[in-house]
Structure formats: structure tokens, C-alpha cells
Amino acid sequence: MRSRSVEPLIQRLPPLKRAASLTEAEARRALRCLHEFSYYPIPEVLGQEVPRKTTDAPVLDSGYVSENEADEIASENKAISLYLELGAGTGLVSMVLASLLPSIADSLPSIVATDYHPTVLKNLERNAASLGSRTKPAASMQVAHLDWCAPTREPPLDVLADIVIAADVVYAAEHARWLRHCAAHILAPGGVFWLMVSIRPNGKFEGVCDSIEAIFAENNTATTDSCQHLRILSKQWIDKKHNIGRADEVGYRLFKIGWV
């Protein structure tokens, strides 16, 4: 049963079903709505299969796209066929996205949630399977193993992703380099990589955000097209919400990354 508090959010979604397929503008609008879902109890929105104790909570709280970016994509009509999440963990972000997309588009893209550790993948598969057992329709969600250092093109990763999302997945400078290497192999031409980074000014994670900016400023010689490189196209600061997220977090940085 849908939570009573979720219903107003669904009703406020724009009437986008006239579109034959999901455009980037529609997708960006859907990602903005992820922010509002963060205030609902996880079991009510996604089912009991998702653990209550999850590091994905601050990710959803911070939101992916702000309202002031809406004008930027108003004229874009690129159809999106595949979302791919890196470091999906419990899969909460992908599951909320899968649940939200049927409310805003007739033609649904596929979602692939990826991670590395076998135990994490087993839990992720169980959570993804719970979507099929619910009466509410959801977009197709698959789970795949992905090593950032050695990305594969085996199904379902044989199709390049139009949108790549990752949240709070970088904890050291080498992680940022692996992440860029992986994204360069899976992001389609013209695609967008949304990267959310938690800002922790003290302790061992201090400076992680700076390392991301430095590494994405370098040329990626591993790409097949040496004329194009992944670059940070824009970035924005997102405030931490009260009593949500880790105690050492002061806010979040959202990076929009693409080919230039």
C-alpha cells in the first residue's frame, strides 16, 4: 500500500505522459523528486527488504538536481534508455528512481545498479527483486557486478549508459581515478554523469572533493576517443538537512560530468 504521505508528491509530478520516451528534461525532473522521497520511512516507500540502517539516506536527502537548473535542460529532447548507478550499495537510489519513473513517462528506461563485493551484490539483488513483488509498477532494474579498475562490456553492461549516477562512493584519491576510468568506459556520447560527494572537512576523508576536481581536470588517455575527455561541467553546493546524514558531514557537492 502506498504511504499516504507519498500520494501528494505523485500528484504534483508534471503531466509528462504525452512524451513517447523519457527525455533528459523529464529524467532530471524525476531526479529532483528523489529529494522529497528521503523524508518518507524507507519500508513504506520501498518495502521491508531494504535495511533501515543504510548509508544511502544522506544521498537521497541531498537531492540530485536543483530547481534552478530546470531552464538549462528545457530544450533538450534526448531520449534516455539506460540509467546506471555506480556503488549502489543497498540500491536505494535506483529503487526510488525505478518507482518514480512510471509516474512521469510512458516509455521507461532500464536501470542497472552496480557494485563490487559479492555480499553487497547479494543484498542488492534481493532488494531489486522486491520491486517485482509490489503492486505498484516500477521501471526495470537489473543488478550487475562492476570493477571500476576493469569495467566489463558483458550484459547488461554491453549498452552505454545515458545517465550515470554515483553518490558518496569516493573515499580516497585513488577511488576518484578508478571512478573516472570506469565512467569513461560506460558513459555514452552526450551522456551525463551525476556525482554526489559528501563534504567532510576533518579526518581521513578531508580533501576527497578536491581530489575529484583535480583528477577530472586531467586528460583520460584510456578513452577510445582521445579527442574527448570527461570533465566537470558544473558543480553546486547542497546543504545538509537537519539530523540527516553522518555527523562529520557538513554538506554535499553535486558534480555534473560529461564529455568535452
TrEMBL record:
Residue ranges of the TM segments: none
Coiled coil residues, start to end: none
Pfam families, per the entry: Methyltransf_16 (PF10294)
GO molecular function terms listed in the Swiss-Prot or TrEMBL record: S-adenosylmethionine-dependent methyltransferase activity
Record protein name field: Methyltransferase domain-containing protein
